[in-house]
Design goal:
Chain lengths: 243, 243
Amino acid sequence: MLSKNQSKLLRALAQKKYRKQHQQYLVQGEKNILELLDAGLKVVHLFATTEFLSAHSAKLAGVTCTETDSDSLSKVSTLVSNNAAIAIVPFPESAEVDTSGIVLALDGVSDPGNLGTIIRLADWYGLNQVVVSEDCADHLNPKVISATMGSFVRIDVVRCDLPEFLASYSGDIYGAYLDGENVHGTAFCARGVLVMGSESHGIREPVGQYINTPITIPAFGVAESLNVAMATGIILDNMKRQN
Amino acid sequence: MLSKNQSKLLRALAQKKYRKQHQQYLVQGEKNILELLDAGLKVVHLFATTEFLSAHSAKLAGVTCTETDSDSLSKVSTLVSNNAAIAIVPFPESAEVDTSGIVLALDGVSDPGNLGTIIRLADWYGLNQVVVSEDCADHLNPKVISATMGSFVRIDVVRCDLPEFLASYSGDIYGAYLDGENVHGTAFCARGVLVMGSESHGIREPVGQYINTPITIPAFGVAESLNVAMATGIILDNMKRQN
């Protein structure tokens, strides 16, 4: 059973302020927790149903577990569909930007679902990191973790002063605009930065000044724009098909 | 002001049963309603704030409008962010499948957000239709309309018995699988059907038997899958770059 203090902590960790204070975050739902266990990442405490614990006992050696009914899990969960398991996990160690290959950098992407989807995409296209500006959504937000579909265990999110990073980078810096070079014709380097802006503000000027190759997904119809996660997926596909 | 009956009707139209009964659906939010007005589609009744009505008066000639405060609009709206305007719109006329170019067909895509995003993609890539199996999400669901970002005014959704349609189709039928031909190397015809299955069930056998070219987006990393809307976008980009 969940104690009062445990319920309180689980509820608190849905908020950024308390995640920062405890240096811990939540991983929820069967798929994400199995990825966490398979990756061998440290788990502070796992709360799960009898069914979950018995189905996955082989993966739980050394993990502090508390058996909990699904109603109690639903009550402390921030996600509608989660009632099998919740884990408390320590903050990941901070990473440096790896500039050896393609660097995916996000400028002001504040929607958690989009950030999570982009982390999943990075994992599909073989990147190890996503670089985010200070004001992007918190990547340890439960909605982000959920949308990554497990990819959060493999992708480091590096939060930094994006203009400062770009100023120090030497190499091609591609940026997604509505009037850049057609990505179907762009000769992409195997090493370079791809900058994506938010759907509402695009790439902002402090970042935009460093873009040396503005690129665009060609439209064949009338829709004005694509969602930032969708655009990121299509551009990464265009970059990786060449490299 | 909204009358009691108007509130009741607006709330009812959030449900499929009442949309069918009234042969009407809802369009909500500034962007979608402006697209509706610009497209010259018939509007039965528009409920909007003073600000919306005065800002867009030029587009409202001949439209039955009721001035409403934003609180009342929020109360009858099914969308969190909508408080500027709601329109009641008659059902679109039913369309036949146009087999002259690329036909995008969805098998069991039940998530409204995914369906809406795919309608927006179809509009970006210059298709005029999306063909959906009987059990796909209702395309007049408010969440679908919202996710289309206005593209619902240009894209016909044709609901049909998908196996029956495919049985009658002559030409290439591409289907997205996890182990098909690499889309980066596929020579796509300018005419053909692209079938996408749902994230949870993939393409089901009654439909799968008609696929003559199974295709796959190559993974460069570890993520197991992509969301169906994302995969649709990346595959359409691969098809349209050639045609």
